[in-house]
Amino acid sequence: EVRLVESGGGLVKPGGSLRLSCAASGFTFSNIWMSWIRQAPGKGLEWVGRIRSKTEGGTTDYAAPVKGRFTISRDDSKHTLYLQMNSLKTEDTAVYYCTTDPWPFDNWGQGTLVTVSS
Amino acid sequence: EIVLTQSPGTLSLSPGERATLSCRASQSVSNYLAWYQQKPGQAPRLLIYDASSRATGIPARFSGSGSGTDFTLIISSLEPEDFAVYYCHQRSSWYTFGQGTKLEIK
Fold this sequence. Notes:
The complex is a heterodimer of chains A (118) and B (106).
Chain A: E1 3-7, E2 10-12, E3 18-25, E4 33-39, E5 45-51, E6 60-62, E7 70-75, E8 80-85, E9 94-101, E10 112-116
Parallel strand pairs in A: 2-10
Antiparallel strand pairs in A: 1-3, 3-8, 4-5, 4-9, 5-6, 7-8, 9-10
Chain B: E1 4-7, E2 10-13, E3 19-25, E4 33-38, E5 45-49, E6 53-54, E7 62-67, E8 70-75, E9 85-90, E10 96-97, E11 101-105
Parallel strand pairs in B: 2-11
Antiparallel strand pairs in B: 1-3, 3-8, 4-5, 4-9, 5-6, 7-8, 9-10, 9-11
């Protein structure tokens, strides 16, 4: 059974940093692209970015609102996906989900809440 | 960026009724469209992909259709557990989501 468990969310001040983790199990993590999706309170879903498998270069893509501030990485030995978030803004407040990628996104974690507030 | 516009914003129906949800893309996405269901406090659940293919374990009362720019999700006979928010999602050009349709009990 595929299982994704996000962690690392919390309260952070504007301009601060936070690193989220997504622990994966139940599939061959190293072979799979992964994406982060976020959802602001009471709002819709927004794709944040993705990372390819190492065999396909391990490269990343980001949505415009987070490009240059967020970095996605992976540790295949630990079956873990990361999202490093720097220069956080109040509009980054959201529940952050990790998902398996390729599309469609049929496996999601439970999400972790990030609140950016002074 | 491809914008997905869902209508209506809110749909009020009774159990047993038929629900028709629409999603329109700002440019063609071919058939690269998916539908998700989300209940409060839960992650989205994949219902339909490639516009009309049901995901594993999804009941037959859910069906999807369309191609290009206009897509429809139909729930043929609403069950109490179907009242939720539904999102469409495309992968033709990067990934974007619609703003959602809330299906509420009338």
